[in-house]
Structures are given as C-alpha cells and as structure tokens.
Amino acid sequence: MTSSRKNSKALQIDTEALSTLALVQEGLLAPVTGLMGKAEAEEVDRSKHYRGVPFPFSFLLAPRGKRNREVLESLKKGDAIDLICQGNVVGELIVDEVFPIDPQKRVIQIYGSGDPTHPGVKNTMARLGDLAISGPYRVDYPLIRDTINKVHQMIRRTGARRVSAMMLAANPLNRAHERMIRETLVRTDLMILFLRKPFTDEGLRYDIRLNSLNLFIDNFLPRSKVLVIPFENTYIFAGYNELVLDALLAKNYGCHELVIGKNHAGLGLYYDQNRLNTIFDTLGDLEIDVTTVDEYVYCDTCRTLVSIQTCPHGQHHHIHYHSDSIMTLIKNGLLPPSILVRKEISANIVASLFPNRFKNLQETYYSLMPSNGLLEPQSDEQFYLKLMELYRTSSLT
Prior knowledge:
alpha/beta
C-alpha cells in the first residue's frame, strides 16, 4: 500500500473504531477482511451473511464530525489518506468508494433498536456519520496481534486438542461464573477467558476485574489450563448480534467451543424476514460448538449452588447472581456474602475501590482480630478477609 504520510487529507477516528479495524485486519472476524463498499454492504445487511458465513450487518467506517465530512466529500478513488487517533497517525487507507448511509437504520441493524435512550444507540449515534468510506487499509494496534500470539503460543505449549472460550465481564466475578468455568475445564484441554474491556466507564474498572480474575485462577484453578485475554468490547458486539460475533471471534482465535449461560441476552427469540428465529438458526454455519450452561442460583434449602433445572425448591428459596445487585453492595463499600462472591475476590475489589479507607487500620485490625502475638503491618485486603471470617462466626448468632 502506498504511504500517505505526506498527504494533508486525514480522517479522525477514535480508539473504538481503531480496535474494530484491527480485529478485521488481523482476521478475527474472517471471512470479513476489510471495509465493505456500497453494493456489498447492502447485500450483507439484507442477507445477514457474508461469503456463506453468518454476519449480522455490514462492516463500515463512517466517522462523524464536520472536518471528517469535508474530507470525505473531497475524496476520489485512489486517494491515500491518513487515519488519525488521539493526534497520532495510526494507519492509512486507499480510497475505493465514498457513499451515504442512514445512521438511524444502521443502529437498528446493530442494536435491534433505534431508541435514543438506549445506551448503545446513544453512544453510537454520537460517533456515527452519514458518509462511509471503503478501500484497503492498514492500522497499527499491537494489542490485537499480541493477544493472537498469546493464544497460539499457549495452544502450542500445552498441546491442547480442544480449546474452549468464554466471554466474561466478571463485573464482579461471582460464584456462578466460577461454576461455569470449572465445569468447562472438566471437558476441555485449554480455556480462554476473554475478559470484556468496554469503551465506557460503566461497572468496575478493567484492571480491578483483571486482578480479581487472576487471583481466582492463580489460587483456585490449574493455571496451565486457563488463559485470560483482553477483549475490547466495541460497538459491533451488541444485542442478539453479539453472540454471532462472539462465536466468530472465538473460532478465529482457534477455539472449538464457546460457552454461554442460558440467560445470555443474545439467546432470545426475534423476528426476521417475517418468521420467528433463535440465534441457533444461524450459529450452525460458524463451525464452532456453542454450549449453553444452566442458570445457577444459591438455594437456602439445598444450602449450596444449584442449577434451577435440578433444584426441587421454588423461586422463593433461590438467591440469584444478579451482577447489578452485587455491585450495589460493592459500590457502597459492603462485602457481599461469600455465597455470592468468594471472600478473597470481595476483599480484593473493595480494597481497590476504597484505598486507605481506615485512618488507623493497624490499630483497628489488632483490636478486632485474633492474632499470634506478632505485630505485623496488615493491608486493607487482609483486614477485609479477617472481617469476613468474623462474620461467619456462628456460636453467638
């Protein structure tokens, strides 16, 4: 591709668009390998397939902004332009075609809704223009290539014949997540946990979720059978389309199975071409096994984690693993009960969210906690762990 470094024409893109372009460039959404022109895009939007493989909507680049629009309107076939992200040249593109799109129609194709109050619709409309550009491109984004290398190296090192994947938000990592991971490890040689890394500030910070997930793996799982990969959760992974693209991504990483919960949002029924569908009507063509796992709850009669399919007790005996409810406790500095979140995970997360919370931590620690008589500095995390042990003391309750 001809370099465009001396060309004054450039398009401004954000990190989310850069990450998505890199996914396609590196073959992780194959058979899609580049930006689609007008005719090809319209065909994909109509058929929901690309080269015989399910693909829910066209792959386009249509950046918003007054300057971007001026540049797009001035381009002609064969022009070379820079791609700029946060003030840096991150790639280049040779223009093949510039064509109009309907932003409202596109967000409906992506999210299944055009409701402006929908968070995804709102965020995408704020960054989506009405002119798309196609043509061969190259971007520099080492993170994607690094993750591919890590997965392939792990497969070679372990000699894994069967590789399973799970897309995980871990917001926070709870006991139901742990059960799903453990059950999958029984039947697979290697498990890839794709930890979602969204481009929003919602939920726990990525570094906190990564630390808690690694804490669980390092201390409670066979480390040689598990690999955590950052998965930048861009706007295209949304709605019922999310599951199709998750499966395609996992397959292109080299996985043989994608594991999901039966309460996954993408498993619902939807209408397309005047008939009722489920996502499994399209997944069969992706050449990857999609395994659904039962929803787990804590039953106060069984007194353990159970599948709702096997527990004979009613809903009024069940405690559900609702991430939002658990996060309400954590955001208020409360440690969730250990039946919901492992105490080591809770302590790690709360200590990260509320650093230096206690004015006299050491004094409080030794006033409340039993010890061996040795005075040693204690961290916030150790304090929370010991506090959880006191909560479980039962002789006076």
